[in-house]
Amino acid sequence: MVTLKDYTTDEMYLIWETTADLKRRQKRGESLDLLKNKVLAMFFEIPSTRTSVSFETAMAKLGGHAIYLAPGRTWIGIEESWADAMKVIGRYADAIVARLMEHSLLVNIADWVDIPVINGSDDWEHPCQALTDFYTVFERKRRLEGLKYTICWGWRHSNAPIGLVHSSLYVASRMGVDFVIACPEGYDPDKEVLEFAKCEAEKSGGSIEIVRSIEEAVDGADVINIYSWTPPEIFRKGIETYRAGKGFTAPAPHLEKPDEYKKWKVTVDHVKMAKKSAITMHCMPVARGEECEDEVVDGPWSVMFDEAENRLHVQKAILALLIGGYTP
User: Fold this and answer.
1) Quick one: 26 and 142 in the same domain?
2) CA-CA distance, 74 to 68, in Å (whole number)?
3) In this predicted model, what pLDDT tens digit does every residue of 161-182 receive, in sequence order?
């Protein structure tokens, strides 16, 4: 699972059906050994809370084992190339999950090994989070087709990759969703990803739209998802400084001229512009007081903590289907 561009509607629904089944069985206290004697190698080039903990927990709950490999634990990048290390680890483990700075490296890893490779977030996509977000919506709304789903850019003092937006476009466009992106000028998704999504949306009966205000985006919305991202071309400049050993420094406009962007903050008033049954979401960690008000996180409309829990269940489903021999 390197990119959701390759996944069909039926394949996404299979993941969600498996998610629902495994979640029910966990709530009933059933013990499942679908991943007995299976090993997941987890490479995290950058910090992670939900992704790392949920994958490790998923392996444990299904009877398998996860090995967390952070920078400094291996010789990768010091005395050994990624290619050599991956070709070896591909013979030890049953699957690899990687959170990397560059999507191109993940694509290469998938070519170097003969086991499944799962994208744990990179500069281009975040498939597991997008699948979780839409599963959480389906769990609440019992449908996706015809919903107005908006993802609102929110100001925060950091540089996050655009991956969730790209992966969400691949999902929404296949599900008949009216998907609205609210972001400042210069923060649009990649043009090729956007065009692909628009073509798919035409086939599914959905739509893709970009607007320049939160107010326009949330008007009549069923879902308000909040996220802050950095334009891809600017994020890559940060990767260049990171690879040069100078730390991650990307000259993002929202950091260089913050006062011009701080108005991009989701408030309770924005939530009240959406449908009464609307839900608010965030992949977390959420920058309280920057991206949105506290009550947007803690109010009755928020499903953010359910969304975070569902990372576990969705990733259990992905692992069960990829290496556990799970059949519906």
Assistant:
1) no
2) 11
3) 999 999 999 999 999 999 999 9
| Residue 264: φ, ψ to 5° | -80, 80
Among 304, 282, 258, which residue's Cα sits nearest to residue 155? 258
Q: Is the pTM of this model over 0.85?
A: yes
Contacts of 169 (CB under 8 A, 6+ apart): 179, 189, 193, 194, 196, 197, 208
pLDDT digits (tens, 9 = 90+) for 96-110: 999 999 999 999 999
Average pLDDT, the chain: 95
**Per the structure block, which two tokens stand in for 276?**
């009464």
Q: Check whether residue 108 and residue 240 sit in a common domain.
A: no
Distances (CA, A) of 279 to 134, 151, 228, 301: 12, 12, 18, 5
Give domain status of residue 277, yes or no: yes
Residue 180 placed within a domain? yes
Confidence label for 190 from pLDDT (cuts 50, 70 and 90): very high
CA 313 to mean position of chain CA atoms: 14
Q: What is the CATH number of the domain that holds 138?
A: 3.40.50.1370
Compute the distance between CA of residue 260 and CA of residue 172 in angstroms, rounded to an integer. 30
The total number of structural domains that make up the chain = 2
Amino acid letter for position 218:
V
For residue range 13-40, list pLDDT tens digits in order. 999 999 999 999 999 999 899 999 999 9
Asked if 288 and 316 sit in the same domain, the reply is: no
Please name the helix (run of DSSP H) or strand (run of DSSP E) that holds residue 137, with its range, or none.
helix 127-141
Per-residue pLDDT at 245: 77
Q: Where are the alpha helices (DSSP H) in 173-286?
A: 191-204, 214-218, 232-243, 253-256, 268-273
Residue-number span of the structural domain to which 142 is assigned: 127-305
Geometric angle at alpha carbon 320, from 130 and 82, rounded to 5°: 70
